[in-house]
Structures are given as structure tokens and as C-alpha cells.
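Attaching the record inline, Q. Sequence:
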Amino acid sequence: MNKITIIGAGNMGGALAKGFCKGIPDADITIAVRDMGKAKQITDQYPAIKVCGDDRQSVVGADIVILSVKPWQAGEVIGKIKPELRNNMIFISVAAGIGIGCLSQMMSCPNAPHIFYAIPNLAAEFQSGITFVTPAQNVPADITDKVISLFDVIGQTMICSEKQLESGMLLASCGIAYIMKILRAQTEAGVEMGFKADDALKIAMSTMDGATSLLRGTGKHPCELIDKVATPGGYTIKGLNEMDHSGLSSAIIKVFKTGFNQ
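Structure, as predicted:
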């Protein structure tokens, strides 16, 4: 059984710890934290997760280390744990902006581990996320396969170039907030039409689940399934045309590209 250490137990680190704990039987997971109150919130739910207040001590004997700290803390943390790094260790940064180049510079030592840069999202806690992963050059294929297997526990995994990671983050991580905004709007529409807010949200979420299930289950393109729902002269086609008149598709594309173009 691999020992996994997650340094940092904020929103992302905490989500990863919980997701791995749910998906890996007898998981040996340690979180390295400075805020013991935040750690307690996690261990109250998942007592199997160990807590360590010392970054260096937390990685002793670890097979996989995940760096999930604020970007400006990365250099300090790596400086502390460097003596405990090993060649056969897997080191994964999920810290925004701390990619392969930064890690390679910070870990330029004979005992440097196998380096990966990854972008997961908060749905990892519920094993419904998607993680984009970039291995450093010369990482053996079997090591990359281990990392894929790890992140497959919390959803889907996609190997891509580091250049594509930013696009993946915008589509999947930022995208969660954008989807929430759409669900919120659908909920408000439901309230205006007479449902209580909680019921309207349940309907919106169920509809979202149904749409994705149809896509996965049939393997069909969204346009093909839209045509099945949109009967001639019906409510659906009128609503779809109103979406087009309002520029919805264009607005959504612009939203995703806003961060990409900066």
C-alpha cells in the first residue's frame, strides 16, 4: 500500500484527502498542516487520515507527495522537505503556477523524485472530478500509470501538455463555478414559476445529471439529443431559439476564453 502525504489541507488538499480516503481501501494518508483546527474538520469526518504538523516529518517514508499550498509557500516547503526526497518517490504539485520548470529548479538535487504537475478540482472529494496531469520529461511510463491510477480514484484523469493545463483548469475548475451560476439561474426561474427554492434547485440538479447521463449512456453528440427533445412548435425549440437570440452560446465561450486570453 502506498503512503500518500498531502502538504496543505485547504480546499483542494482537503478535497483530495477525502476523495482518496473514500476510494482507496486501507489508504495510508497523511496531511501536513499548520492549522490544526482545519485538520480536525477533516479527521472528524475521516478518522483514518493522519495529521502531521511538520512538513519534513510528514514525507518521511512517503511514496507519493502532493504539494497543495499557496504558490508563494512552495519554495519554503520544498526547502524543508528536500532532505527526505528519494529517487523512487512521486512528487505532484497541484499548487497553481508551480509547474514542471519551477519544481525542477527547486529540486535540483541527486535524490530528486519523479515530478508531475496536476490540476484537479473540488469535485475530487466526491470522486467526480477531472484531473489534468503533466509528467516531467523522462518519467517512466509505469510511474505515469501509477499517477493516472491514483487520480482515477477521484474521477477522470487526462494526460496533457503543460501548455494545455491552463485550458483544462478554465474548463473544469473554473467551469464548476460557471455551471453553478447556470444552476442558480435555473433555480431562480423555478422560483418565479412557483416552486420553492430548495425544490427548484433539486429539479435543476436532477436535470443536469440527466443531461450528462444521456450523453454518457448514448455516446451521442449534444445536438443529436437536443433534436430528440425539441418537438416541432414546442416549448423546447422556442426556448432554444431564445437562447440563441440572447447570445448564450457566445457568452459562455467568451467566459471560458476570458482567462485564457489574459
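The longest strand covers residues 129-135. Residues 114 and 138 are 9 Å apart (CA to CA).

More tomorrow.
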